[in-house]
Amino acid sequence: MHLLSLQNIFLLSYISNSVQRCLSKLFSFFSDEQESVQKRTFTKWINTHLAKRNPPMLVNDLFEDIKDGVMLIALLEVLSGQKLLIPNDFSLPLCPWQGNQVIAVCDVGGK
């Protein structure tokens, strides 16, 4: 049985830490890449359905374009085949874009 010298132990520890850093960077890259692929795929799916509207709509930036809820309502109208009613007396929440999101969820939930 061979005893590892203190120098070899430090070397093994350094190699182990280096491998862990490399693997961490690799996993982070693949996670970011997977998120990017999912975002592009979902954007294409939404655009496929929004192209059926008259007039058609187009999502360029998924997170920014659907934030105000207008495209979300349009998407839900295309998917459900029904016109979603937006009440005039609806009091907006603290963030203005949340109003349309709440209306869309409530309207679909009630069907």
Give a structural overview:
The mean pLDDT is 74. 65% of the residues lie in helices and 0% in strands. The longest helix has 45 residues, at 6-50. It has helices at residues 6-50, 62-65, 70-80, 98-109. The protein has one domain (8-109): Orthogonal Bundle (Actin-binding Protein, T-fimbrin, domain 1). It has four helices and no strands. Helix 3 (70-80) packs parallel to helix 4 (98-109). The chain is an all-alpha fold.
Core attributes:
single chain; 111 residues; mainly alpha; Actin-binding Protein, T-fimbrin, domain 1; rod-shaped
Short précis:
This protein is mainly α and 111 residues long. The protein has helices at 6-50, 62-65, 70-80, 98-109. Helix 3 (70-80) packs parallel to helix 4.
Estimate percent helicity: 55-70%
How many helices? 4
Indicate the low-confidence ranges by residue numbers: none
What's the CATH architecture name? Answer: Orthogonal Bundle
Order of helices and strands: HHHH
Radius of gyration: 25 Å
Tell me the span between the first and last alpha carbons. 74 Å
User: Which class best fits the helix and strand makeup?
Assistant: mainly alpha
| CATH 4th-level superfamily | Calponin-like domain
Top CATH class:
Mainly Alpha
C-alpha geometry = rod-shaped
Number of domains: 1
Average pLDDT rating: 74
The profile of the biggest β sheet is: none
Q: Estimate what percentage of residues fall within beta strands.
A: under 5%
The CATH topology, please? Actin-binding Protein, T-fimbrin, domain 1
Number of strands: 0
